[in-house]
Design brief:
Layout lengths: L9 E5 L5 H14 L4 E5 L7 H6 L5 E3 L14 H21 L5 E5 L1 H6 L5 H10 L5 E5 L5 H6 L2 E4 L20
Length: 177
């Protein structure tokens, strides 16, 4: 079956709970393990998270680097935000251009990138309708725009019931990093 014969659907992993990126990574591994080709990019994250070390060694996963180090948005100056906006808009255009060569495109943390204006919501929605027919598109992040939710085929909300951060426990290596 060619990519053009498949129906590629749109997934959103959202919510305030842990597991959005983990779910997207799992789906990417499943796709690659089944012989598919995945393009994976992380917005608003550096290139040091644990999942990256494994994914870069998996045949079928094309893991693109983002900025080496990135601040939390609320710690960025207006100039840094403007630079990130330019960087991510260019990167999004590159990802769209590369998408037809893949079975799956994962845009990890794209939803907050939309919220902060680093990517244009209208452009992403347009990509939903223009994407290759067989491309599975996976988005992650908190509080997706209702238009994204309406256009998606799968929407899974990770709901926090309890989290160690609430007790002052910082992100831990192997678990959140």
């Amino acid at each position: 079956m060619s990519r053009a014969d498949k129906t590629g659907l749109i997934h959103i992993y959202c919510g305030d709970g842990k597991g959005k990126t983990t779910a997207a990574v799992g789906l990417a591994v499943r796709c690659a393990g089944g012989g598919g080709n995945v393009l994976f990019f992380q917005f608003l994250k550096g290139n040091r998270s644990g999942e990256r070390a494994v994914m870069k060694n998996i045949d079928g996963i094309d893991l693109w680097d983002g900025p080496e180090d990135i601040k939390f948005v609320w710690n960025m100056t207006e100039k840094e935000k403007a630079e990130m906006r330019e960087y991510y808009r260019e990167k999004f255009n590159e990802l769209r251009a590369a998408a037809p060569d893949h079975d799956m495109l994962v845009l990890d943390e794209v939803i907050p990138a939309l919220k902060y204006g680093f990517i244009d919501t209208e452009e992403l929605l347009r990509f939903f309708t223009e994407k290759p027919q067989g491309l599975e598109l996976v988005l992650t992040g908190r509080d997706p725009d209702e238009r994204l939710v309406e256009a998606a085929d799968y929407v899974t909300e990770m709901k926090k019931i309890k989290h160690p951060f609430d007790r002052g426990i910082a992100m831990r290596k192997y678990i959140e990093l």
